[in-house]
Structures are given as C-alpha cells and as structure tokens.
Amino acid sequence: MLVLVTRPRDQGEATARRLALMGHDALLAPVLDVVPVTEAPPEGRFDAVLVTSANALPALAGERDRFAGAAIVAVGRRTAERARAAGFGNVAEAGGDSRALVDFVLGTTPRGARLLHAAGRDRKPEPGGSLAAAGYDVATWACYEARPAAGLPVPAAEALRDGRVDAVLHYSRRSAELFARLARHAGLGEAIAGTHHVCMSADVAAGLASLAGLKLLIAPKPDETALLRLLAKVGAGPGSRPPQSEC
User: Fold this and answer.
1) Name one Pfam family in it (predicted).
2) CATH no. of 2-31+149-233
3) CATH class of this structure's domain 35-147
4) pTM for the model
5) pLDDT tens digits along 14-59
6) How far is CA 10 from each of CA 29, 51, 146, rounded to the nearest angstrom?
7) All residues at 6 or more sequence positions from 190 whose CB lies less than 8 Å from its CB, including other chains
8) CB atoms near residue 107 (< 10 Å)
C-alpha cells in the first residue's frame, strides 16, 4: 500500500525504510521542518536529562561532555536507541509518552534531583509540570525548533487528491493539526475523507478533528511498532509488495 509519512524528513526516511521492509511504499510529506537553535543549555550539573523527542539529540550530542554524568531518560525505545547511537552510555527508556516518563522518574530518581528537559521551542507543559510539582528541580532547554511547512509537497497533494494514498501516519498532535490545516488549504478535505489515518494516540487523533469523515485508527500504545502494526487493518492496496527480509 502507499503510506503517507508526515514526520520531519530525517525521521520520515527512517520510517520509510521500515515500511519498505513491510512491503509498503512510502511517500514523504513532512509538515514540520526541524532546525537547531542557538540557545545555550542552562549552567550547572544535572542528575538526568529528559528527552521527549529524538529531535533534541543532535544538540545534546554537541554538549556530550557537559552531560557526561547525567542519565539520559528517553521517552521510548526508538529515542533511546538513537541516544545510544549518538554516543550516550547511560540511557534509560520510559513507556512511550510523557506520563510514562513522569512515572519512570518518580520511581527511579530521588525528589529534589536536578532535571533538564531538552525540548523544542513549541512544547507541551509535560513532563516538566508534573515533575516540578512532585518536588524536582526542573529546567528546560529549548534546543531545536519545529517550523511548520508552508504547504504539502506537490506529489503528496496529488496522490491524496487522486485517492492513491491508502494510509497517513500521524505521530504528534501538533503535526496532525498542521496536516489538517494544510489539507484544508489545498482543498483536500473531501478527497481524504476515505483515507485511513493511523495515529500514535487518541491525543494525536484529536488534532484531526477539523477534518470530517476520516477513518481513524489509534495505536494501542504510543510507539512506532504498534502504529505500523495497525496498517494490517487497512488492507492490501495496489502499492503493496511482499515483505522484505532485514538480513
């Protein structure tokens, strides 16, 4: 089947490789462009660095010596894998979302510990809000910015308009909201009504509320493996191929 991937380009390319192994074709349509920012990290020593998006890892890798003594607490398995690949040794992984990350810290880190949330400029208040309320000293470092795309790529818009896209993958509420806005701007509201939209969580799906008649599928847990397994419910479209071996 043909699957539209709305992630930032580097992450979208990784997803496209996974889709190819599953026998699907991917069409990249990033609705966010991730760029670094020049803000320096807060001074001082931190007991742990919280990473809720792999987008923060390039900036963290550039400051690896400064955070050498801190544990890296990644929101989920894929982010943890990328942190290890970036050269960090003391990496732990939470259960896939901010609530799970809060619970992990509460269960492993003493109250009063100094925590750094490496995040984007446009972010939700969690996990920092809950951890600060629980007695942790939480600082935030805005180390990247996710800028909205001006429009959907022409090949993606044409494929959606022609009904060739079998499924669209959505990973965050913000990117889902942006996709909905760009789709409406391109006049695609009716064209995509019959397309399956596969969402990382119910919160992500809520970002598509402005589009009527969508076929929504919500992952049972917030990780990409669970998300991609839902494609089996979409069915085999004309773009499907036999799965490939990873060997």
Assistant:
1) HEM4
2) 3.40.50.10090
3) alpha beta
4) 0.81
5) 999 999 999 999 999 999 999 999 889 999 999 999 999 999 999 9
6) 12, 18, 13
7) none
8) 7
